[in-house]
Every structure is written in C-alpha cells, then in structure tokens.
Amino acid sequence: GIAIVKRISTRLRPATLDHLGLAEAVRWEAQAFKARTGVRCHVRANRQQTRLTGEQQTALFRIVQEALTNVLRHANASSVQVTIKEDEHGVDLRIKDNGRGIPAERAADPGAIGLLGM
C-alpha cells in the first residue's frame, strides 16, 4: 500500500519539478508516456528555469499529464508535441497531436471531465 501511495504522489508532483523545473519534469513525463504507450512525445521549451511558483508549475504539469491521458484514450495519435514558451507576459503551453481531434459537441459536453479539469 505504501509503495502505491508513493508512486501515485510522485506521478502527481514529481521531485523533478523542485530540482530541475517544469521543462525537465515535462520531458521526464513525455519519456515515461512514450515508454508506456509507444506514442512519440517531443517537448520544446524556451527556458530551462522558470519564474513560475511551485503551485503554477504543478498545475501546468498536471495539465500536461491530463492532456497526454486524453491523447491516449481518445485521439488515436502516434505523435505528440508539447511546447512551453515563457516570456515576461506569461506562459504559453501547447499540446498538439496528430490524432483525430475532438468534435465540438464532445468538447462542450459537461461530462468531459478531463477537459473541464484542465
């Protein structure tokens, strides 16, 4: 039981965020995603160090995790591109895949919990 709780908590907020920052934590997640699924996942970031708070980094990391989960469940994609661009005005996080997309009515569905959570 303890090992399961440790594994879950590490996936929700990896120590990589604290030690190496958001970009490296997302790269780590992308590598783990590819190893689990076979879906190629490439990460681009214009900064290695961020000015974001720990809470902001955790939120963005969790959004990436949820987006990758959605790609696996729904997109039937073979490739994912994650881009993190930070400047003095803020952060732009984009997750793009080569999958089938989401119909507008599904995106607006209140039962689409993953999208709502992000």
Describe the protein in words.
It is a single chain. The protein has about 120 residues and is of the alpha+beta class. The chain is about 55% helix and about 20% strand. The protein contains 6 helices and 3 strands. It has a 3-stranded mixed sheet with strand order 1-2-3, covered by helices on one side. The two termini are about 30 Å apart. The relative contact order is 0.15. The mean pLDDT is about 85.
Summarize the structure in short.
The protein has helices at 2-12, 15-20, 22-37, 54-75, 104-107, 113-117, and strands at residues 40-45, 79-87, 90-97. With 118 residues, it is of the alpha+beta class. A 3-stranded mixed β-sheet has the order 1-2-3, with helices on one face.
Q: Which keywords apply here?
A:
single chain, 118 residues, alpha+beta, 3-stranded mixed beta sheet, 6 helices, 54% helix, globular
Describe the SSE topology.
Elements: H1 2-12, H2 15-20, H3 22-37, E1 40-45, H4 54-75, E2 79-87, E3 90-97, H5 104-107, H6 113-117
Helical amount among residues, as a percent range? 40-55%
Characterize the largest beta sheet: strand count, sense, and whether it forms a barrel. 3 strands, mixed
Cα shape: globular
Radius of gyration: 15 Å
Strand order of the largest sheet: 1-2-3
Overall mean pLDDT: 86
- Helix-and-strand structural type: alpha+beta
Distance between the termini: 29 Å
| Total count of strands | 3
What is the beta-strand fraction?
15-25%
Number of helices: 6
Order of helices and strands: HHHEHEEHH
Low-pLDDT regions? none
